[in-house]
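Same chain as my last thread, 350 residues:
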Amino acid sequence: MRFAAPELLWLLLALPLLALVGWWAHSARDRALRRFAGAREYVSRFTGQVSRNRRAIKQLLLYLALATLSVTLARPQWGTRLEPITRHGSDIILILDTSLSMASEDLAPSRLAQAKHAIGSLLDLLAGDRVALVTFAGEANANCPLTVDHGAVRLLLESVDVNTVSLPGTALGQALRTALGLLRSGEREVEDRGKAIVLLSDGEDHEGELEPVLDELARSRVLVYTVGCGSTRGAPIPLKDASGILTGYKKNRSGQVVTTRLSEEALEDIALKTGGRYYRATSSEIEVEEIARALSSLSRGELGSELRTRYEERFQFPLAIAWLALISETFLGDRRRVRDEDEQPERGGA
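reply #2:
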């Protein structure tokens, strides 16, 4: 046997306390009655018609009802059955820019750290949807295929940094094409399943080739929601050693510190041409909630079925005992049964 809500069994600990309070109230009532009667021998005049045994039984029935109601609330379960569960959801590709410019700290603690946290928050709001993860710098990598196991996506996300993709650069177009390939390989000709891409980047694109893939995304009816990470005023790119200590800032061939700026125009153009929407990343992550609401409006197709073990609910048994105990306590009187001969006045001798 198991309980679906075992924490509610702690309510049983209140029963001894209630019993103690009941005993104290009973003692206080007896003391008050003795004071009112004036002497102990006169108390029976007021309590002679009350059965202490019946009153004790009524108290025990009340405690039994409270105990079994606590067990009922904890939902006892035993016995199992296999139940087919059909999953429904959409296909969502998360694309994360891991180029060196994402190490800039104009969005605290860094562009990449804020983007990773935003993806984690978004995963909390995508229950039931299949999710994949793509990272890119000078080339794109499919880190995780479409899966309903969001925990696996989180584990892979934690290991992502600006060194995840060794080739420097920002192959934005290739990342979008990789995401489109994942959607096509996992769709199984399910026409009614919604498909979308969430792209988190600072918008820099050093490789070009955006227009052809944007046309393919639009024809495939794949919405792209873009999130701009960084600021338009720009920031330098910090260089750190293996222990995370700052060693300097990236410089160009002329020896000047490189400033990387958020390119909102490119991200807005991607969202506009695919029917999505552009958002600016914020520390409060308001944009994450808005993206989740937009994704929830996608059509949810069948993602497959699986057999899940279901425990049989057995709360009916303690509930029935509690009901019977309460009914019995209600109808059981506490008056003493007096024999007829005891009720007749004593007759004197002739």
